[in-house]
């Protein structure tokens, strides 16, 4: 059953408050929750249980792919499709092909990191339930938000609200899906 | 609260051992957001228009005018001719690429070395990189003469069945400059996303909401987003650091793989990297000192930050001095009469001797003033020095390029080179275009990386009393 609510959000004032609130929410057994902050707070990703980000693999794949592809292109164009003798050098030699391949590896790896970041973050997206809340505009300023998903097994509007209140959350509101 | 304060005092190191804060006067997160976006959101001040109008004149009249005239008539409208086939176009290309490098060095290399003070100037320096690489890329494209064949440089299957010749460093340049432009733009844009989201959340008009909302791509600042974002950021920093050392090396290879005396030297790749960074620091000083004053960012870009850029400038000037010295030494030690001729004529020749002296006096001599703290603290003088360094580094490229070409192996080939009005208008046009883009950037985008500065503040540290932690480190 799909709830018409996305979750219950609470507002916190400081990085320390949000970090300890997140730790307690986790300890209380919730596993569908998220934290929104104006800047990365180190330690939160551990509390959220994230492992090493996969962005690096995207970057490696794109960068490695670009390197191999450029090497292949240079071999194909200068040694196979239209072999051309330049200064009596071999038609293809890795040292001369290395520089453009290396440069395009950097390009590929950078694009990979960016694309990986977008893909893993589900971006670009046109809308997010949180963005509809007026108070949430403060998330890019100086407020910290914790949301407990309505799809969490332990979610109950009253109990969860009480827990968030006890953790010092203010402006506790339901977020429409 | 009083308990937290006493705890802070008892835990803190003695005053002389403490690091100066990144943002002075103990500003909070909200204040920072308001302050850093005030310029982009507020009324446009008069000084902006005073700078913008001449810049736009360069961008919309001088540059297109010179380009249209040159492309429709031919490269002959420039001063380039035999024996000086590379003139202002390549000098300016190398100069603009150089300007770009300091931006990447500040934003990428200083990030990897965890220099938190760089958060306050990184964005402005990155913007400088992006815009100056654009200007740099323009020159080779029009220098080829028939600009409508520029696509020959890309490996595109065509009806002639021809491919680029990948052994040439000039070909590597095409890839290097394009990669530099793409990667630095990506890096700059990715850094902007959280701050554009801040502008989206504060936007008051529908148009601004739409544009910033579109550019922010649905950023919410969730833990997962930050988690992946930071990883991508550190990877991009590593890649950009590679580019700092690669792009100018390849530009240096354009020269040193030739047989010409004065160019044919193994030191060139390093020479060009250091020269690029040095010239770029000059431009950073020229851009940041007025920006700091006019946009009232004194609390954020503190004198201490400027002091550090000055020290980095000094360091790169020392390396440049070493390279100049080594160039002369190798020219003498090689025993090659042509090398010796070229290098002695840099300072004592009869046509371009002034270029050599400007290069030595400014880049090596005047930069030594930065040893003095009193000089570094006088930002007006530092600003003037920044302009002089840019001029000095421009003359360095002039000396390298024209100085080696105008008198080559056969005296029958000798000639002189003077720029024409088209050369001058093209250069002024690129300067105008650069400043137009820069002024538009500070007017419409956050000119300081707000989220990064917040993260580097004690107010953003969950284990610091100012970040809300109770007592000491919890």
Topology:
The complex is a heterodimer of chains A (177) and B (474).
Chain A: E1 5-12, H1 15-27, E2 33-36, H2 44-47, H3 55-81, H4 94-120, E3 144-149, H5 157-166, E4 170-176
Antiparallel strand pairs in A: 1-3, 1-4, 2-3
Chain B: H1 2-11, H2 29-41, H3 46-73, H4 88-112, H5 122-143, H6 169-202, H7 206-216, H8 223-256, H9 268-294, H10 303-334, H11 337-348, H12 353-365, H13 373-377, H14 379-405, H15 421-444, H16 450-455
Helix pairs in contact in B: 3-15, 4-5, 4-8, 4-9, 4-14, 5-6, 5-15, 6-7, 6-8, 8-9, 9-10, 9-14, 11-12, 12-14
Could you describe the 3D structure shown?
- The complex is a heterodimer of chains A (177) and B (474).
- Chain A has 177 residues and is of the alpha+beta class.
- Chain A has helices at 15-27, 44-47, 55-81, 94-120, 157-166, and strands at 5-12, 33-36, 144-149, 170-176.
- Chain A folds into two domains: 5-51 and 134-176, Alpha-Beta Plaits, CATH 3.30.70; 55-120, no CATH class.
- Chain A is built from five helices and four strands.
- Chain A is rod-shaped, with a radius of gyration of 25 Å.
- The mean pLDDT of chain A is 88.
- Chain B folds into two domains: 1-13 and 457-474, no CATH class; 24-147 and 165-456, Formate dehydrogenase/DMSO reductase fold (Up-down Bundle), CATH 1.20.1630.10.
- Helices cover 68% and strands 0% of the residues of chain B.
- Chain B is globular and about 80 Å long.
- The model of chain B has no long low-confidence stretch (mean pLDDT 88).
- At the A-B interface, helix 1, strand 2, helix 3 and helix 4 of A face helix 2, helix 6, helix 8 and helix 16 of B.
